[in-house]
Automatic annotation (TrEMBL):
Residues 26-134 form the AB hydrolase-1 domain. GO terms for molecular function: catalytic activity. Coiled coil: none annotated. It comes from Micromonospora rhizosphaerae. PANTHER family: HYDROLASE ALPHA/BETA FOLD FAMILY, PEROXISOMAL MEMBRANE PROTEIN LPX1. It holds the Pfam family Abhydrolase_1. This is Pimeloyl-ACP methyl ester carboxylesterase.
Length: 258
């Protein structure tokens, strides 16, 4: 395990790393998740091995610290992720990010394009005010006091055992404030930032989720949109082989295999 201090309060972000060639690949988890269990199996497929790979947990989640003074906004998470990648000596990384983590990765690429050479987003949140089941899991519908006095336990029961297994490792305050930040979004919005980014960008969508909102607009801005048949929101868990193939093709600027 690796760690670096990311704030004056001494908070540390932690990641698991596999050695390999540069550029590094950086995997970023979604809300209530942690990077290793969501990504390691798919990233260990032969299509994706060989590169240095960092599985990073954002503040408030998984292995990383839970600073009370952190704002837990998308931009705040992106700033701390940038600090972590600087400390790890990462430049022009292949950033692979899921759901809420995709929104953080877009903000990272917007503010620090030197850190992101290619971007693969898996069902990333692109717009403010997502549906309660999309990325935020309904957490933001509570007030903070309601969430801390029973809403967290209700949410764990509602999301089911798989998501709850990692969500229960999250700091309840950090989870709640991150969900609120996800609903608020960024200015400009994540979608607008994504459309304007200069690096190669791919958006992976699970076929069971339904169509991507404004896919035509994304593609017109140069974002490659790829649908993974038979997969839901957690594409890398639902269809790890197809995910690995599509991600490897995106990172190599090759056609996605049929």
């Amino acid at each position: 395990m690796f760690a670096t201090t990311v704030g004056p309060d001494g908070a540390r972000m932690r990641w698991v790393e596999m050695p390999g060639i540069e550029p590094a690949r950086v995997y970023v988890h979604g809300l209530g998740a942690t990077a290793p269990p969501y990504f390691v199996a798919a990233a260990s497929r032969p299509e994706l091995t060989g590169h240095r790979s960092l599985f990073v947990d954002l503040l408030g989640f998984g292995l990383s610290d839970r600073p009370a003074g952190f704002d837990y906004t998308l931009t705040g998470h992106a700033e701390k992720l940038a600090t972590t990648l600087d400390a790890a000596g990462v430049r022009a990384a292949h950033v692979v990010a899921h759901s809420m983590g995709g929104a953080v990765a877009i903000a990272l690429a917007h503010h620090r394009p030197d850190l992101v050479g290619r971007l693969v987003l898996i069902e990333a949140n692109l717009d403010p005010n997502p549906a309660p089941t999309a990325g935020s899991s309904g957490v933001a519908r509570y007030t903070e006091s309601e969430f801390l006095s029973g809403g967290f336990e209700e949410t764990l029961r509602r999301v089911g055992p798989h998501w709850a297994a990692t969500m229960r490792l999250a700091d309840p305050v950090g989870l709640y404030r991150t969900a609120v930040g996800l609903v608020a979004g960024t200015r400009p919005t994540m979608r607008r930032m994504l459309e304007r980014l200069p690096m190669p960008r791919t958006f992976l969508q699970g076929g069971l989720t339904g169509p991507v909102a404004d896919q035509v607009g994304l593609e017109a801005s140069g974002v490659r949109v790829v649908t993974i048949p038979g997969a839901g929101h957690n594409v890398m868990l639902d269809a790890p082989v197809e995910f690995a193939r599509a991600t490897a093709a995106a990172l190599a600027d090759q056609p996605v295999p049929a």
